[in-house]
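Subject: for your reference before the review

Hello V.,

The reviewers asked for a structural picture of the protein, and I figured it would be easier to keep everything in one thread rather than splitting it across files. Below is the amino acid sequence we used in the manuscript, unchanged from the supplementary table.
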Amino acid sequence: MSKNYQALAKQIINIVGVDNVESVTHCQTRLRFVVKDAKKIDKTALENLDEVKGVFFGSGQYQVIIGTGIVNDVYEAIEKLHLVNAIYGQETAATTTSDDEQKTMLQRFMAMLSGIFIPIIPVIAATGLFLGLQSALTNDQVLHLFGTSSAAIPASLNTVISVLTGTVFSFLPALIVWSTFRYFKGTPIVGIVIGLMLVSPSLPNAYSVAGGTAKAIMLFDKIPVIGSQGSVLTALVAGFLGSKLEHYFHKHVPNVLDQILTPFLTMLVTFSIMILGVGPIVHWIENVMIAGVEGLIHLPFGIGGFMIGAAYPLMVLVGIHQMMIAIETSLLAATKLNPLITLEAMYGFANLGVALAMILRSKSQKAKANFIGAFSSQLFGVSEPTLFGVLIRYNFKPLIVTVLTSGIGAGVLSILSVAANSYGLAVVPSYLMYIYNARDLLIYTIVSLLTVIVAFVATNMFAIPKDILKADQTQPTIVDDTVFAPIEGQSQALSAVKDPVFASKMMGDGIAIKPNENGPVKIYAPQSGQLSVVADTGHAYGLTTDDGVELLIHIGIDTVSLKGKGFKVMVKPEQHVQKGDVLGQFDPEVIKAANLDDTVMVIVTNSKNYQRIESESNQSVQAGEPLIAIQGQPEQKTGVISPAS
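And here is what came back from the structure prediction:
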């Protein structure tokens, strides 16, 4: 054990605070602390330590990114300081705590909303596009150019179009109940049926009752009964209640009757509870909530819009932005419009302006590469690389620029009453949500571009960090090298990976691969060399090649939480392997079943020792094919990474 790592361990623990740590463990790239108060930690002091590549707070853990191999040594140094036992007894105590147990109640609630609504986002976004195309293709001014009018469109074609544009919103409660059942591990088909019951044509349509063209059914001459069309909150409550009731009946109904009696009782009791009073009460609460949001949006002088636009980046930062999806869904179901996402969208455009200014002003090629990756991913709505790699990394000045310019852009849009007709699309694709209305599309385009420009100018004037104005020290070019693909799949830019640590290249440059196969996937050695790290869980391998390139093969995101389930290891630490040798295998289906990402990252962890790391994204790759080109090896190799502890 190097004295430097002992010193580093002491420095890290002193900054985090012994009394502040509830537990500490590590994976193959980072130390993971569960702390009592993250605010007590001096983030800048941590980032300035040698060997610390970055700091990130997520999944209820304060993560200190160090690097493959070294993290094992640092953790071992913490053990030798007798701090691990002092904190929680032994290493296994931390690894037995699940991510859910480490999350706060608010974090679990946000994760629930995300897990329920994300699966239905694609169909709502698609419906928005259908509505936009319908507006464009049935517009009399457009049709006049072709010598016709909307009156000439056959009724049969209008019927077909109405099926495309109306189905999702007509049966939205069924989709939400289905997704809620799925999230809480109920039987999804039971959820679909309960959801369809809530919007059954046999019940008076909620919209018709509200419009005065229909009357509620009076059950027992006292209880008004109507459908739940447009009520997102009612569907959420029905899904939660139904899934819990199903679990209860599974436990208490005799096995011989379980297959028939459990779904019967689940549907009967859930529908009865919802229709006899809970549904109308929940719907009333939802209407009050929608009215409150709309009231905020339409505050005079764009005040409400500014508040929403400025708050949204901070909501993303602390992870509570998923709550907005539920509100947006309610707005869409009730009004067919979504002004909320219009205001939130300015966050992404402000980020573009900040990142672009950083790219053009940076003299550090390493920093510029990170900024380009962040900018590229932000174009399509992936904001984590920009948020963690740009906005909060440099004394929060860039974040202040984003908050203010996002708020200003949102304030202007709220004054002009611009609204989308769906959600799920961000930044460049977001323009598709406004093609239904030429006026809104024009205003949204102008304001979004002005937001980019204002953020760009403000960043240049007030928020360019001095660190990026210094040129990198270059290494002489001696030899080129190649890293080969460890699996078959589709290559992806590292900036597109849904983990800010990998996406921002804190661990080093490289590329990601989305596996093609669904069954067990073999992992092949991408080069000949010595294995410095072989994770017991099988989710990560560290390899120092014979040419001194330090590689990390990381299978999936947060897959350390699976504790080896779905993985098989076929090698040992310190073993020398040849290119193409099988290191192990993993099952993508097991990873997906745990709601985790199965993307495989191939990282050159000593990237700073080379002049250029090149790879091609969005390409089909076969195992053993060239994947990464390395140019400019230093005069002295860095040596073998110390083996995993």
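For the response letter, the relevant points are probably these. The longest strand covers residues 509-515. The two ends are 11 Å apart (CA to CA).

Happy to draft the paragraph if you're swamped.

O.
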